[in-house]
Amino acid sequence: MATPPDTQKPVVEPSPDPAGQFEETLRSLHMRVRQQEILGELGVLALKGVPFEELLGETARLTAAGLGAEFCKVMEYLPGEKCFLVRTGVGWGNDIIGKARLGADLESPAGFALRTGKAVISNHLENEERFRTPELLVRYGIRRAINVILQGDGSPFGVLEADARTEGDFTQDDISFLQGAANMLGMAIERQRNERRLQAAIERQELLLKEIHHRVKNSLQIVASMLNLHANQGGNEEVRRELREASNRVLAIARAHESLYKNHEIGSLDIGAYLRDVCRDLGASAPGCIVRGDAPEGIRVATDRGISIALIAIELVTNAAKYAYPGDAKGTIRVILEKQEPDLLSLKVIDEGVGLPQDFELEKTPGLGMRIVMALAQSLNAKLFAKVRDQGSEFELRIPLRSIAPAS
């Protein structure tokens, strides 16, 4: 028996709840906006140059938040072992971070992403047939995962992966977000590798420079020894004295090179420590005189300026030994380095000898030593003063500190 026409009703699939559909769209929109904010935050971190390990951790944390996932990890590919190392992440135990290793073959989602460069979404790992589900994900009850390649400088660094226990779907929009985060991190990885190569090149250059300074120091010490040897072989006393003075000058330069290869700073030296070494050498070569060096450590000067200061000290000490204590007279010569003012360095050479002649004038001194002192002082933009003391004499060199390299 036929059903009356007015009682026939078609079977129609119910339309989605408009209110529920709107709420879902709104949640999705909020998530996309938050993801863009996170990419901006990661970009700022990458540009600020935060420490690399900190940037890795922040990338994992922010990426998990942007995807609403409980887990995220940065996996570094180890070519020698052909596997991934879980470098950092969120949600994982301490026995995983920095220790766990996962397969990187094409049968694993992360390995596929690494080797093909294609992002991988597995929204139903319990039913996944394309790839082998890593045991780590099974152990932590992960239900869905998303992987993107993490590029480095030339070769891939690894994979950035987000994982969730909750139901739901990672989408193409999520891939775009995750790949954007990976690209930010990739730029930081490239910068780090470039900085590491640059630092290695600088260290090699410094090593070569130190080796050069070491060899120059050895060569100069040989020259100084030869000059001393000739001075001790007798002959004219004036010639012997000139040879000893030349030896002291050469040895002072050798000391500068010794200081350079023993310290990290190549372009500057500690003038206090340097002058004390020079004074010890002078004391050993100035018969009948005690040379005392009083100079604080921590004042660094450019190498060429430091050598000039030391050579001035040598000439002034040599003159004091020769003229302040003539004949068989013995006495003390003090070399004092100090900061007199915030912007002024003072070098004093003081003796307790016979003193200066009444008609002594620096500019009219005919001796070679004083001519050397005046020329070096001019090169330092420094001023030289001579002072008659109650007993002996005092020479002071005032060097503007602004011309001196700052302390490291």
Please write out the topology.
Layout: H1 18-48, H2 52-67, E1 71-78, E2 83-90, E3 101-103, H3 109-116, E4 120-122, H4 135-139, E5 144-151, E6 156-164, H5 172-231, H6 237-262, E7 268-270, H7 271-285, E8 289-294, E9 300-302, H8 303-324, E10 331-341, E11 344-351, H9 368-379, E12 383-388, E13 393-400
Parallel strand pairs: 8-10
Antiparallel strand pairs: 1-2, 1-6, 2-3, 4-5, 5-6, 7-9, 10-11, 11-13, 12-13
Descriptive labels:
alpha+beta, single chain
The overall pLDDT average reads 80
Radius of gyration, Cα only, in angstroms? Answer: 39 Å
N- and C-termini, Cα separation = 105 Å
- Number of beta strands: 13
Write down the CATH class of the largest domain: Alpha Beta
**Oligomeric state of the chains in view:** single chain
Overall shape: it is elongated
Strand content: 15-25%
Strand numbers in spatial order across the main sheet: 3-2-1-6-5-4
The CATH architecture name of the largest domain reads 2-Layer Sandwich
- Bin the helical content: 40-55%
CATH superfamily of the largest domain: GAF domain
User: H/E element string?
Assistant: HHEEEHEHEEHHEHEEHEEHEE
Give the biggest sheet.
6 strands, antiparallel
The number of helical runs is 9
Stretches where pLDDT is under 50 for at least 5 consecutive residues are: 7-15
In total, the number of domains comes to 2
Structural class: alpha+beta
CATH topology of the largest domain: Beta-Lactamase
